[in-house]
Design a protein that fits this description.
Layout: E1 2-10, E2 16-25, E3 28-33, H1 40-47, E4 55-63, E5 66-69, H2 74-79, E6 81-84, H3 96-106, H4 112-125, H5 141-152, E7 159-163, H6 171-184, E8 189-194, H7 197-203, E9 206-211, E10 214-219, H8 221-226, E11 232-237, H9 242-248, E12 250-257, E13 260-266, E14 276-277, H10 282-292
Length: 293
C-alpha cells in the first residue's frame, strides 16, 4: 500500500502543480488519469524520489509495522522502485544488452551470472532479445519504450511507476505490455499515469482523476461508470449541428459515425429531440468529471 497524504507543490514560477493530494494505492494496477498539466508527472517524479514537495507525506507500507518514508528515505525507496518516465534518455552508441547489464549493476546485481540471466529474461520479455546487440541509437521509438520497460523491471521492484507507458507502441506491442503489467501487478504496486482512458479501463482495479493539481475523483472504474447509468444520451447529427448542442447541453464526447457525428451528452433526464439512452463508459466518467471541475 502506498499512502499519499496532503501533498502540495508550487514551482518557482508560481504554478501550483499539486494541491493537497491524498491517495491510497493498494497492490495491483492503479490508473492515474488527467489532461496535460494536471500534475500527474509531478506526482510521479515525487513518488520516484526525484523531487521534493512543499508539504505532505508519502509512505510505502511493506508489511505490519514496516513503512518507508518516501520523502525522507530516498535511498531505501530506490532499492524497491522501478520507474519508466515519459521521456527516457539513452546512450545511443551502446547496445541494449550492455546498457541493461550496466543498470543491473547499479541495482545491486553483483554476480555476472545472475545479471546475464536477468538481462536475458527481461530482453525476451520485452521482445528485444533478437536485437540485444544493436546500438540503442538505431532503435525505433517503440523499441526504446520497450527498453525503458525492461530497465524499470530490474530487481523485481515492489513499487513500479510508469508514465505514459504505451506512447510510441504499436497495437501488438501495446497488448504485450498490458499483459506484462497485469502479471506484475499481482505482486507489486503499479501506478500507471496516462491520458489514455482505454488503458485504465483495460488494466486497473482502482483509479483517480487529476486536474489542475487536485484529485477530482477516485474509486473502482466499474463503480464509477455505474454512477452514470441512465444519465448518458446519444444522437447522430450533422457536423454543423454539433456547436449548437455544445452551447445548450453538457456534451461529453463527439464521435464520427458513417460520415456523421454521434453526440453524447450528460443529463439526468431524457433531453428528447431524438436522443436515445446510451451505455456509459469510463470515457464518459472522465469527461463528466473534468466538466464539473
Amino acid at each position: 500500500m502506498l499512502r499519499i497524504e496532503n501533498l502540495s507543490k508550487t514551482y518557482g514560477n508560481g504554478v501550483q502543480a499539486l494541491k493537497d493530494v491524498s491517495l491510497e494505492i493498494p497492490r495491483g494496477m492503479f490508473g492515474l488519469l488527467g489532461p496535460n498539466g494536471a500534475g500527474k508527472s509531478t506526482l510521479m517524479r515525487t513518488i520516484a524520489t526525484l523531487q521534493g514537495v512543499d508539504s505532505g507525506s508519502i509512505h510505502f507500507d511493506q508489511g505490519p509495522g514496516q513503512a518507508l518514508d518516501v520523502l525522507n528515505q530516498k535511498h531505501d525507496v530506490r532499492k524497491i522502485l522501478g520507474y519508466l518516465p515519459q521521456e527516457m534518455g539513452i546512450y545511443p552508441g551502446i547496445s541494449a544488452e550492455t546498457l541493461l547489464d550496466h543498470f543491473a549493476v547499479l541495482k545491486g546485481l553483483d554476480s555476472a551470472g545472475d545479471r546475464r540471466e536477468v538481462v536475458e529474461g527481461l530482453l525476451r520479455m520485452t521482445n528485444l532479445y533478437d536485437v540485444r546487440r544493436r546500438k540503442l541509437g538505431t532503435f525505433s521509438g517503440g523499441m526504446r519504450r520497450r527498453f525503458g520497460i525492461a530497465q524499470a523491471l530490474l530487481g523485481d521492484p515492489e513499487l513500479i511507476i510508469v508514465d505514459e507507458p504505451t506512447a510510441g507502441l504499436d497495437p501488438e506491442e501495446r497488448v504485450r505490455f498490458h499483459n506484462l503489467l497485469c502479471e506484475i501487478g499481482e505482486t507489486a504496486v503499479v501506478i500507471l499515469s496516462t491520458h489514455i482512458v482505454e488503458d485504465v479501463r483495460e488494466l486497473c482495479s482502482r483509479m483517480a482523476i487529476l486536474s489542475k493539481g487536485r484529485v477530482l475523483l477516485q474509486g473502482e472504474p466499474g463503480a464509477l461508470v455505474a454512477r452514470l447509468e441512465g444519465s448518458v444520451w446519444r444522437k447522430v447529427v450533422g457536423r454543423s449541428e454539433v456547436a449548437r448542442y455544445q452551447e445548450s447541453m453538457t456534451v461529453l464526447s463527439t464521435r464520427l459515425a458513417a460520415g456523421r457525428t454521434a453526440v453524447d451528452i450528460l443529463s439526468d433526464q431524457s433531453p428528447g429531440d431524438g436522443f436515445e439512452s446510451a451505455e456509459p463508459d469510463l470515457e464518459h466518467v472522465y469527461f463528466a468529471t473534468l466538466h464539473d471541475s
